[in-house]
Every structure is written in C-alpha cells, then in structure tokens.
Amino acid sequence: MFKPDLCTLCGNCLVKCQWMNVERKQAIVWQKAMVAGEHSPALDQCITCYACNERCPKKANPFDLHAELQEKFRSKVSEDTVNATEAKYYFTGEIKNIPHTKRIMAACIYEKTEANLLQGELYNLLRVGGKPFFCWDFFWHMGAVSVLKRHTQTFVDRLAQTGAEEVVCFHVGCYMTLFKTAPDFNIKVPFRPIHFAEYLVEYLRTHRKKIKPLNLKIAYQRPCSSRLAPDKEEMIDEIFDLTGVKRVERKYDREGALCCSSPKLMYNMGDTKKDREKNILDAKDSGAWALVYLCYVCRNMLAETANEQSLPMIFLGDIVRMALGEIDVPLKIDK
Ligand code: SF4
Ligand code: SF4
Question: Which of 20, 58, 94, 156 could make an S-S bridge to 45, C-beta 3.0–4.6 Å?
Fold first, then answer.
C-alpha cells in the first residue's frame, strides 16, 4: 500500500528506474502528479518490476501507487484482456479431497506445468494446487489490482480449509499474496506463509549431514517479487552457502537486478532481446557456470538467450537436490 505521508517527493523511484530515462526535476513533477491521483508518463513506461518499492529510501511503496493508477488509467492492458484473463483463472467448481494437515505446500497453477521440478524427497509433503489455488499475483502486472481485491480472500480461505498452520509457497507469487497483498487489503491470514527459500534453508539444515558441496559458480536471477520481501535475500545466500555454491557479483543482481522483461513483452513495449542479452551476458561475463532462477516466468523468458550463450538455467530447488545427491549436476542446458 502506498504511504503518501512517507513520500518526500525526492523522485528517486523514477530516476533510478531501469526502464525509464527521466531527469530528477521531471521525475518530481511526475511523482507529484501521481500522488495527486493524476496520470503521468511514468505509468506507461513502468514495466511493473516492483524494484522502486525496494529502492524508495522512505519505504513509501511507490509501485503500489503506480499499480492503483495503472488500473485507473488502464495504462497496461485493456479491460477486455483483464476480464478474459480473470475469467480464464476463475474457478467455480467444487473442490474435492482437500487434504488436512498441519503443514501444506501450495503449488498454485504450477503444479502441472512445473511437475518435473516438484520431484523427490524435498517435496514430500501434502500439496494443493491448480486453478482453485491460484494466487492471482499476476494481476499486479496487468494493472488490475481490483482483480486481486476480488479474489485474495477466497485464495486465503481455500488454503485455510486444509487446516494448515503453515503453508509452504512453492510459487513466490503465492507468498507475496499472503505476505503482502492480503494484509494490504486487511485480509487476515490464519496460518503462517513460508517462503520457498525459507523452506529450502530449513530442509538443508535438517539434512546437513547429507550435503556434498557443489563447488559451482553461479549467477542468480532475482524475481521481481523478491523486491517486496528483500529480507529473504539472506536466505537465498544461505542456500548457496550451505550447498557450496558461489553467487558471483554482477551488475544485474541484488539491488541492481534486472527484471526478465516478460511484462514488457506482455505490454507490447518493444523488443526485449537487448534486455535479455545484457542480463545473460552480464551473468556469463561474471564467470558464472549457470544462471539459477526461482521464478518460472524468468526461466521461460530468458531460456532462449541463455541457451544461445550456453548458460544452463537451474531451478533453485534443484540446486538443493543436487547438493543432497538426489539429482546429478546437468551437463545439458535446461530449456
Ligand atoms: S515514493 Fe519514495 S523514492 Fe519515490 S518520491 Fe516518494 S520518497 Fe522518493
Ligand atoms: S515498478 Fe519497476 S519499472 Fe515500474 S517504476 Fe518501479 S522500478 Fe520502474
């Protein structure tokens, strides 16, 4: 939620944005207009990467302001597209066989599409997924916050029906909906959401004796949602420490991380090839053997360019499974 009382109109959020080129004087004019609820070109140029929420020195959540106004001015996708997408994911049927357990994994709509990742002992806990457990997080990128407002309560209620005290979020978007969106909308979450990285750290600590250090140098692709919970970066680092993986220093990581550019593609804001290339080349030139991802959209968006540069893409969960000897370190490129 945007906090206007904290905003000092410094303009940093727009000046430091990697997706627009704006001088501070102009940025302040744009920010003033938006705080007043008016349109500004920033709404059209923003690709919804959430980075400004992390960069704002006052923690005023400027992206949340953009999101509200992007819906007001329909800056991102058309109303017809929003409605069609909402209808596509809206589940009206009866949910059968809801498991009851103290701890459950939520796999969102990725249960089927990422079935090859959800393998092995690491995922040996009861799971819910599919359309009834879709987190709606994607609609932040569509400039359609009202869709999230309509469905977040149902998402929380359905997870609560499992009786779980803890919900492990396989999809980082689910965590963001439970950790940020729901509280923003005054929706009570009656269980503890667990970020996937937190789960991996806990699992590694429990199975410490089985770890065989991988001795790999990798680059990390931060997902946009990590900007909303930057404290989880320490856990990402701990996963790499525990598995014997070195996260290379590079321009497009940490605060400087570059969005995979998939929203730019969705908004028809031009060719994304150069954006993808500079990210992948930065990873490769930093001495990384592979690019580790947490978000499947990042992987889908960057895979072709990574493939061209012979840079394997590896899921963070698979790094854990490799270190525990569940799967081999791949020799081939993961497309
Ligand atoms: S939202 Fe934050 S970064 Fe942006 S103008 Fe306000 S205080 Fe500055
Ligand atoms: S969300 Fe990303 S693209 Fe949009 S203004 Fe903030 S930093 Fe720029």
Answer: 20
* C-alpha of residue 191 to centroid of ligand 2, in Å: 31
Which amino acid belongs to residue 179? F
Q: How far is CA 212 from the centre of its chain?
A: 29
Residue matched to tokens 């750290």: 201
The pLDDT assigned to 269 comes to 95
Q: Say yes or no: CB of residue 7 within 6 Å of ligand 1.
A: yes
**Looking up tokens 């580790």, which residue turns up?**
292
Average pLDDT along the chain = 96
For the Cβ of 60 lying below 6 angstroms from any atom of ligand 1, the answer is: yes
Q: What is the pLDDT of residue 334?
A: 45
The residue behind tokens 């799967």 is 327
What's the pLDDT band for 232 if we cut at 50, 70, 90?
very high
Quick one: which atom of ligand 2 is closest to the CA of 16?
Answer: 7
Q: Which of 277, 278, 309, 280 is nearest to 293 (CA)?
A: 280
258 ligand 2 Cβ < 6 A: no
Tokens 């030139």 belong to 285
Whole-model pTM over 0.85: yes
- In the chain the first and final C-alpha atoms are separated, in Å, by 37
* Residue 46, ligand 2, Cβ within 6 A: yes
Quote the CA–CA distance of 51 and 245 in Å, as a whole number: 26
